[in-house]
């Protein structure tokens, strides 16, 4: 990026030649895409958008947001945040373990803004400050995946309605069971934590979402996940962003991951969790299923080498996504976070089949 931010907060004039030059540099098409997206988030000319980015964010997204906000006529404040690569961490920060720190002044500006657009390289998702931001009513969205993914899986009101219907079903369930031919059989209780519907944009106060998305998730009741999840060959542990070459067996007892068995992949996963020296990394985190019909499981192979959050994998329609590590609602923060996406799983809520071998079954949820 040509302009290296030197201040904590930059206020960008919509009419500045720098903004126009940015649109020229990044191209009209990407600026159009971001303008359409911000319109979906209901950004209007009387509002303020706070843009958070790190030095390792995609520079074209900074330019596109500047151009899009200027076209809409809204006010833009920019919050350059120190790269998380500079944060002293005991292990490798990658994927959904973002813990970018916000200074107090930046946090207050975000809370006063109408929209927070988070394009920090690892996302502010697990930042302790995020809860405060959402409680203030700021609509918050995150985008990290490549432009092609943003465009292909561009969200819609139809996706929102479908995600809300699935979220409502998950939210009233008391028990969940997952089984698969690969050997998965795990149960847990639900109801302690709210279900969440993710549909890719935020048009409601205090809603957090991720562009692109399409999924529902919740945290199981504390201490209740019991059983085995077998991630099969071809399933994906994230942030490793690689397809498993052989099955990996995860054993949970009273909500704690007590065993990871399998081949080389199992060892990599164990090494990663152990490297944090944080027992919270072994807690069960969230679980749910994907709803994004344009997601492509081949994305990791096709986007090889690109920085990405792999929303193709996380949101793939009919997947089963479970995770280990944090639960910010319970005040459990840890950057040691794995999302593991599995195909061909059958998921039951209160004994009703919701997903059968990777296909969402109830007509009302399709
Ligand atoms: Fe996650």
Across the major sheet, the strand order is 14-13-11-7-6-18-19-20
Number of extended strands: 20
Question: Beta-sheet strand percentage?
Answer: 25-35%
Look at the structure and give the mean pLDDT.
Answer: 90
| C-alpha end-to-end distance | 42 Å
The main pleated sheet reads as: 8 strands, antiparallel
Classification by helices and strands:
alpha+beta
Rg, nearest Å: 20 Å
Order of helices and strands: EHHEHEHEHEHHEEEEEEEEEHEHHEEEEE
Please give the share of residues in helix.
25-40%
**What is the number of helices?**
10
Give the uncertain stretches in residue-range form. Answer: 1-8
Q: How many structural domains does the protein architecture include? A: 2
Estimate the global geometry from the Cα principal axes: globular
Small-molecule binders here are: fe (ii) ion
Characteristics:
366 residues; alpha+beta; Rossmann fold; 2 domains; six-stranded mixed β-sheet; 10 helices; globular; binds fe (ii) ion
Structural account:
The chain has 366 residues and is of the alpha+beta class. It folds into two domains: 17-144, 3-Layer(aba) Sandwich (Rossmann fold); 155-365, no CATH class. 26% of the residues lie in helices and 27% in strands. It has helices spanning 17-26, 28-40, 59-72, 104-112, 129-135, 147-152, 157-171, 264-275, 299-302, 311-314; strands at residues 10-12, 48-54, 75-81, 115-118, 139-143, 175-179, 185-189, 196-198, 208-211, 215-218, 226-231, 236-238, 248-253, 256-262, 284-290, 320-324, 338-342, 346-349, 352-356, 359-360. The strands form three sheets. Strands 14-13-11-7-6-18-19-20 form an eight-stranded antiparallel β-sheet, with helices on one face. Helix 2 packs across helix 3 (59-72). The model is unreliable at 1-8 (pLDDT under 50). The site of fe (ii) ion (FE2) has 5 residues, from loops. Fe (ii) ion (FE2) is lined by residues 96, 286, 323, 337, 339.
